[in-house]
Amino acid sequence: MIERLMSVREGLLLGILAVAYGWGLGVAFGAAEDALKGGLEASAEASRAVYLEKANGDAEAAAASMKATVDKAWNYYQRAHLHAGAIGAIAIGLSLVLGFLDGASKLRRIASGLLGFGAIGYPLFWMLAAQRAPGLGSTGAAKESLAWLAVPSTGALVVGLVLSFGLLAARLYASRTAP
C-alpha cells in the first residue's frame, strides 16, 4: 500500500498541511478573534491618509470605508480558514484515489502535487489579502497585489482536478466491455 501512496505523497502531505492550517486558523479565531480584528483595525488606522484621499478628505466617508474594508478583510480570514479545510480534504481524497489507480504514475504525481499546491496556495492568498487590505485601503487592491499567488494556485487546482478526472475516467472506462 505504501508504494501506491508514494506516487502521490506531495498531494497527500500538502493536503494534510492545508487541513491543519485551516484548523489552526479556526483555533486562532477562537483564541484571539478580538486581537486579529484589532490588528486589521490598527492597520487601517495607520493608513488613514489612504482612506481620506479616496474619500476626497471626507472623514465620515473615510471612516465608513475603513470599517467596510476591515469587515471584508475579516471575511477573507474566514475564507482562508474554510478553503484550507475544504480544499485540503479534497486534495487528500483525490490523491488517495490517484494513488490506487494503475499506470501513469508521473501524471498521477503531477495531478496530486497540483492539488496539494492549490490547497495551500489558495487559502494563503485569502489570508494575505486579509492582512494587506486594510493597509492598502481596499480589498480589491489587496487581491490585485496577490495575483502572483492567486492565479497559479487556482490554475493548479483546476488542472489537478481535470487531470484527476481524466486519469480516473480513463482507468474506469479503459478496455472495459459492456456489462
Describe the structure.
The chain is mostly helical. The chain has helices spanning 2-6, 9-46, 48-54, 59-99, 105-136, 139-145, 147-173. Helix 2 (9-46) runs parallel beside helix 5 (105-136), helix 4 runs antiparallel to helix 5 and helix 5 (105-136) runs antiparallel to helix 6 (139-145). The longest helix is centred in the middle third of the chain and has 41 residues, at 59-99. The mean pLDDT is 94.
Provide a quick synopsis of the model.
This protein has 179 residues and is mainly alpha-helical. Helix content is 88%, strand content 0%. The protein has helices at residues 2-6, 9-46, 48-54, 59-99, 105-136, 139-145, 147-173.
User: In terms of per-residue confidence, which ranges show pLDDT below 50 for 5 or more consecutive residues?
Assistant: none
Shape: elongated
Annotation, overall tally of beta strands: 0
Helical content class: over 70%
How would you characterize the largest beta sheet?
A: none
Class per helix and strand makeup: mainly alpha
Termini separation (Å)? Answer: 29 Å
Number of helices: 7
Order of helices and strands: HHHHHHH
Tally of distinct domains = 1
CATH architecture: Up-down Bundle
Radius of gyration from the alpha-carbon trace, in angstroms: 21 Å
In round numbers, the mean pLDDT is 94
How much of the sequence is in beta strands?
under 5%
Name of the level-1 CATH class? Mainly Alpha
> Any idea of the CATH topology?
Four Helix Bundle (Hemerythrin (Met), subunit A)
